[in-house]
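Case 358 in the screening queue. Each case pairs one protein sequence with one candidate compound; here the compound is adenosine-5'-triphosphate. For every case the pipeline is the same: read the inputs, emit a complex structure as tokens, and attach any notable structural observations.

Predict complex for case 358.
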Amino acid sequence: MNTLAIDIQLTRGDFQLKVNCSLPASGITAIFGRSGCGKTSLLRAIAGLESGVTGTISFDQQHWLQPELNVPTHQRGIGYVFQEPGLFPHLSVKQNLEYGLKRATDRQQVFEFDQVVNWLGIESWLDKRPQSLSGGQRQRVAIGRALLSQPQLLLMDEPLSALDASSKREILPYLERLHSELNIPILYVSHSTDEVARLADHLLLMHQGEVVAQDTINSMLTRLDLPLAHSENAEAIIEATVSGVDGEYGLMQLAGSGGELSVACQSVDIGRQVRLRLLARDISVTLKRQTDSSILNVLPVEIDAIQQSDSTATQLLLRLRWGKDIVLARVTRKSVDALGLSVGQQIYAQVKSVAVLA
Ligand SMILES: Nc1ncnc2c1ncn2[C@@H]1O[C@H](COP(=O)(O)OP(=O)(O)OP(=O)(O)O)[C@@H](O)[C@H]1O
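Case 358 output:
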């Protein structure tokens, strides 16, 4: 598989960026980490927008940075979407999009104007000026403009952070659509676990200018040695397939790697792949399968690890293996002692709520 291989250093005052990693050149890789850890600096270095970067960057066998070589930004084939859309106010939406096409003169055309306009649902605003659009609509145009520059890599730096909650909700389905339709890799900087859970395939965690770890989204969210599993909203993301519909009760069945789940019906497309989010705080465990509980989803699981989840040691985090997937459950230490839970034990996870993300 093609990769984006990065081994770079950059010094800015007291701050040092020192990144050595290899990222998959497909899907969405979320770049996550505290404010000031170097996420934007990393994107800018990849784009060739930072001076003083040393080391090497290569993408899909093309060398962008080497000791005697620094390919200029416009030749790297990168689309960049920033927090602010940065559209030209004196141009119509159509003219802003055409500006993207003009920037693509020497690149093979992969994204057609009409296709991009359709993906992003911007057909009806082509003659409008950007200032007559909402923030979310403007950002959709900015994404369209970036795609029409025919990038081989798309960099998105907190593209939703300047938007209010309702604009975020409006634009997320379009990003999900790009995720499933686009064939180019996207690096996506975000502070929002919600966006990351919905969109990312892969997650790169940074701290003080360095990469702490990177892996598939679910591996990263469920690793007990990383901070993500210990956050208030600790969660697991798993993939499942719609396997049946129970019309009488308005439920759909989903097949995961460890068995079936039932959730409120949203789709009757049997065979459709869906992404599920299971929050650690919504999962409790029992030694025997309960048959007199209102909880619909009871998963047979094996305890993979048990770890303290807060500084007071009142709560513990259980890492549970369900088929090939991992889910997390947050329980009290008292319950762990009372039930005599230990690693390797076969138990049942009672899932109070499952969110279908896409
Ligand atoms: N030109 C500069 N001179 C000095 N320090 C700089 C300069 N540019 C960036 N920095 C420092 O580099 C560090 C990383 O900044 P960067 O914007 O990459 O972080 P970030 O993770 O994207 O932050 P945020 O999430 O807040 O956007 C910060 O500590 C910042 O103060």
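Case 358 observations:
- The chain has two domains: 3-221, 235-356.
- The chain has a mean pLDDT of 92.
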